[in-house]
Amino acid sequence: MAQDRKVLDALDTAKTQWYHFTAVVIAGMGFFTDAYDLFSISLVTKLLGRIYYFNPASKSPGSLPPNVSAAVNGVAFCGTLAGQLFFGWLGDKMGRKKVYGMTLMLMVICCLASGLSFGSSAKGVMATLCFFRFWLGFGIGGDYPLSATIMSEYANKRTRGAFIAAVFAMQGFGNLTGGIVAIIVSAAFKSRFDAPAYRDDRAGSTVPQADYAWRIVLMFGAIPALLTYYWRMKMPETARYTALVAKNDKKAAADMARVLNVELVDKQEKAAAATAAAAEEEAARREQYGLFSREFARRHGHHLLGTTVCWFVLDIAYYSQNLFQKDIYTAVQWLPKADTMSALEEMFKISRAQTLVALCGTIPGYWFTVLFIDIVGRFAIQLGGFFLMTAFMLGLAVPYHHWTTPGNHVGFVVMYAFTFFFANFGPNSTTFIVPAEIFPARLRSTCHGISSAAGKMGAIVGSFGFLYAAQSTDPSKTDAGYPPGIGVRNSLFLLAGCNVVGFLFTFLVPESKGKSLEELSGENEMEAEPAAATNSYRQTVPDSGQSE
After folding, report:
1. Three-state SS across 33-94?
2. What string of DSSP letters covers 308-319?
3. Maximum distance among all alpha carbons in the chain?
4. CB–CB of 430/288 below 8 Å?
5. Helix 66-94 to helix 18-52 angle, to the nearest 10 degrees?
6. pLDDT at site 262
7. R_g (Cα) of the chain, nearest Å
8. Residues 481 and 65 sit within 8 Å (Cβ to Cβ)
9. How far apart are CA 447 and CA 442, in angstroms?
10. Cβ count near 320 (within 10 Å)
11. Under DSSP, is residue 358 helix (H, G, I), strand (E, B) or coil?
């Protein structure tokens, strides 16, 4: 027990070293791939509709039918939800390292397979694409609890928030890279295979070679993940898991000394019988204190409720905004009407718009969190983020007619970018960080998986629901195959309401700035009780054989 405490104290007080930054890159490249794969689909869905659902009699370019569009956009989130629960649980049972490589290889294989989706009909291609994107999401889901837990258990308590935030911030670069790759691919194909606008030549506006463009964009996401596979396999198991869960203090100390250049001198002596008995009793209590126990409900039940609800409502708003940017930009006339462009030109302009918002709003928000989270604290950033997201969404929704009039779309895009900025310099980062800090080591990955799965449930609600809700209330103005919805304006009001719920449930989540993981999880208290009992025992039993 003394050695166990010594290992954890050394981790908490270790100086920031090169390996901390290496771990950020290794774990972060998984999140780079996650964001690339989850959001790149929104760059190519319009192209998929033109290629596979072209109707020569229609005045509008082909588009994915409602059920197909919902499946293509949302199926990866279904896989992610399942993966978060499964790999979160497995990470606590088998160890973080053993599971870490599985998730990455699954992502690489399914990323490549998504781009190779073939079929004899449009339905066949879409079904194959959805199949591989489900399993891609399953692998991505595992990365959430494992990366967060690994980084939290490696970091010292002074800069832990910044390092976990830096891992998550790689999502911003994945999002940006997806847009850049789509711009390059669409521009290259457009330059080589130029085509007229749809209204000038319906069939000729989509060249056959465009079928390769979306495949290249989707497959590119496998490259960064593949490059980091070797380094993931070289990472040792986290010392906290080895010491607290596997109960191997010597290996924990050796692993930590190898990567963090911290030497622990083993001065352990044979413990008294009372100390050994207390340690055994404490270990037994740890085993009994499970996820579904009353003790967990008493200590952490409200924390888990807070992390799950906040992540759920955040992702309804965040993923609705992210996946359907193109529809919102069209509604406010920032993007030209579809029939005035060729298929590749439309892909280029959608990619350019989303890249601009990612560059100006998404990425700065992530890195503001990295800079300020260990200064301001998690609670203030999450509370402020929800509040300002609500304010900016209401600023878009209340004067919505003003934003849709010609000449005002630039102001709309600026306001829209601010909602992304305060999502990322706010709850989108903190909902990822806090569950990796406040739960016990043996349940940390599982609880993070449950919290992030609640988030992906919100993403599913957002990706499926917003697709229908944002349709015009006028049946003559809806997209082909869609029933009338509540309109973009009312949808923004609904998303603002989600942010208000997140604001309120933030009060259930504790501040974790500057505290050790064991303080936050209550594991220090559990260790203190047997130690107190041992000290009491020593005071009541004469110490023969030793003099003052």
Report:
1. HHHHHHHHHHHHHHHHHHHHCCCCCCCCCCCCCHHHHHHHHHHHHHHHHHHHHHHHHHHHHH
2. HHHHHHHHHHHH
3. 101
4. no
5. 160
6. 59
7. 26
8. yes
9. 10
10. 27
11. helix
CA-wise closest residue to 102 among 147, 131, 132, 139:
139
Highest-scoring range by mean pLDDT, 6-15, 45-54, 475-484: 45-54
324 and 42 Cβ atoms separated by less than 8 Å: yes
- Tokens 């607290």 belong to 244
H or E segment and range at residue 25: helix 18-52
Residue 45: how many CA atoms within 13 Å on its side-chain side?
A: 23
Q: Around Cβ 204, how many Cβ atoms within 10 Å?
A: 12
Non-local CB neighbours of 79 within 8 Å, separated by 6+ positions:
133, 134, 135, 136, 137, 138, 139, 140, 141
Q: Is the pLDDT of residue 502 over 90?
A: yes
- The mean pLDDT value for 355-370 works out to 89
Which residue, 504, 510, 491, 480, is CA-closest to 66?
480
- Cα 115 to its chain centre, rounded Å, is 22
**pLDDT of residue 494 exceeding 60:** yes
Mean pLDDT of 81-87: 94
Over range 341-351, report the average pLDDT: 94
Q: What is the pLDDT of residue 264?
A: 52
How far CA 257 is from CA of 45, 65, 216, 265, 304, in Å, comes to 49, 57, 43, 11, 33
> Exposure of 373 by Cβ count < 10 A (0-12 exposed, 13-18 middle, 19+ buried)?
buried
Sign of CA dihedral 370, 366, 176, 163: positive
- Mark residue 522 as left, alpha or beta (left: phi above 0; alpha: psi -120 to 50; beta: remaining): left
Per-residue pLDDT of 241-295, as tens digits, reads 888 888 888 888 887 777 766 555 444 433 333 444 445 455 545 555 688 888 8
Looking at this protein, which amino acid is placed at residue 477? K
Structure tokens at 70: 């919902």
- Distance (Å) of CA 233 to CA 191, 242, 330: 42, 17, 45
Instruction: Flag whether pLDDT at 181 surpasses 90.
Output: yes
CA dihedral 39, 44, 46, 49 (to 10 degrees): -120
Distance CA 452, CA 311 (A): 7
Interval 10-33: pLDDT, tens:
777 777 788 888 888 888 888 898
- Residue that has been written with the tokens 């002596």 in this structure: 269
What's the token pair of residue 402?
């003003």
pTM of the model: 0.81
pLDDT at 54: 93
Mean pLDDT over each residue of the chain, to the nearest integer: 84
Helices (H), 338-438: 343-357, 363-376, 378-397, 400-404, 409-424, 427-433
Q: How many other β-carbons are positioned within 10 Å of the β-carbon of residue 539?
A: 8
CB-CB contact of 17 with 260 (8 Å): yes
Which token pair is 1?
């027990």
* Domains located in the chain, CATH noted: 10-265+298-517 (1.20.1250.20)
pLDDT at 167: 92
Q: How many whole angstroms separate alpha carbon 175 and alpha carbon 200?
A: 33
